[in-house]
Model the fold of this input.
Amino acid sequence: MRRLSALILLLMLAAAPLPAAADESIVIRFSHVVSPDAPKGKAAEFFAQRAAELTRGRVRVEVYADSELYADRDEMEALQLGAVHMLAPSLAKFSVLGANGFELFDLPYIFEDRRALRAVTEGPIGERLLESLEDRGIKGLAFWDNGFKSFSANTPIRVPADLAGKRMRIQASRVIEEQMLALGAVPHMMSFSDVYEALRAGVVDGTENPHSNLYTQRMHEVQPYLALTEHGYLGYAVIVNKRFWDTLPRGVRRPLERAMREATTYANRIAREENQLALEAILAAGTTEVHVLDAAARAAFRRALLPVHQSAAERIGEDLLAEVYRATGFDPQRK
Done:
């Protein structure tokens, strides 16, 4: 029923006129799929507040959290049609648009630390990736962090073989699918909003998430084991309908760009803080056994997952991947 209502709203809003007159109040509908308490949720609210302040009330950003308007499978189409104006989808979702370069962010162990990550998101590679969306009617504004992902499951995870045969929820990502297959797991694609119930009902056995997602979506209540593998990165690109953005007066766009810069700084700072707090809350809840990998186990996971880089290289682009390796200092030969 919610999906039908959302589709009707999509059609109605897609036909709505874009802002034209200089004295009109401008509403920006910002939709996302995570909790308002997750780092992305808080960053979206921060952006909304700063947008109102910097435009002196000229712009009102309406934030719709927790898939209130659109689930994963619908939100990109809604943006392109103009039913919503702004999204912050996970980077895994851009391959459905044919923007395969974004798949690099899903590669396991591609970023050794946040310095390596910033070399991509704040450098020429990230800039080119955002620019590549414009032919698809999308304007890329910024990259926001969530954090590094770890595996959770209904049985202990100590070594890669512990995930063999496990039904693992994944995003719609070829790289993440290949990652699970490399571990002998069974990838099961589903929308983020459905994961808690699927874990509770045993439809899937486990998943991967930064700690903040695991906690704010209450997945820790139905996942008794968590291994701190930190094998992959989860981030977002903040995007806006390009036609809508281009119709905004320059005197509105400029303060919005400033609000987005400030929100990005806030988002990336709070992501670190919130993930640490979430891990502490998971430990305090006592429902999930948290396992810290030793050096040998971490090396074993890295060896098991490195072949995913090779299988994804053709889709991502071998030249682009080599450029990422140079920018980050990643050594694909290190075992």
About this structure: The two ends are 50 Å apart (CA to CA).
